Prior knowledge:
The protein has 2 helices and 6 strands, in the order E-E-E-E-H-H-E-E. By secondary structure, it is an alpha+beta fold. The chain has a single domain, classed as 2-Layer Sandwich (GTP Cyclohydrolase I, domain 2), CATH 3.30.1130. The strands form 2 sheets. The protein has a 4-stranded antiparallel sheet with strand order 2-3-5-6, with helices on one face. A two-stranded antiparallel sheet has the order 1-4. The chain is globular, with a radius of gyration of 16 Å. One of its GO terms (biological process) is tRNA queuosine(34) biosynthetic process. Its EC number is 1.7.1.13. It catalyses: 7-aminomethyl-7-carbaguanine + 2 NADP(+) = 7-cyano-7-carbaguanine + 2 NADPH + 3 H(+). This is NADPH-dependent 7-cyano-7-deazaguanine reductase.
Amino acid sequence: MSTLPSKQLETFDNATPERDYSIHIETPEFTCLCPKTGQPDFATIKLDYVPDEKCVELKSFKLYIWSYRDEGAFHEKVTNTILNDLVEATDPRFMRVTGVFNVRGGVYTTVVAEHRKEGWVPPTPVTLP
Length: 129
């Protein structure tokens, strides 16, 4: 296999750092293992962020997500770990990671974790009539 899972998140320079704009990334292929049973857990991971100087490179993000496939992880912990790793790599103005986990035992779990850079104030939304 020429491509392997990796915890290394690559970045590239934001071409428009003077502007607040949002990036949305969504992957329905997240898998990890239940740390209690070893059974697979499946989720959609949604990433929304306002970049500062760096953006996350998509192939490295895909390989990073893949790296959890054989790891045991509680939903709450893994969602926060993904956020921490992405914040460390990109130092965004704002970032939100949402883990929407598939049903297990009749229970759905959604975990939302957020980061705001100190001093960053979100722009006022424009509402058109």
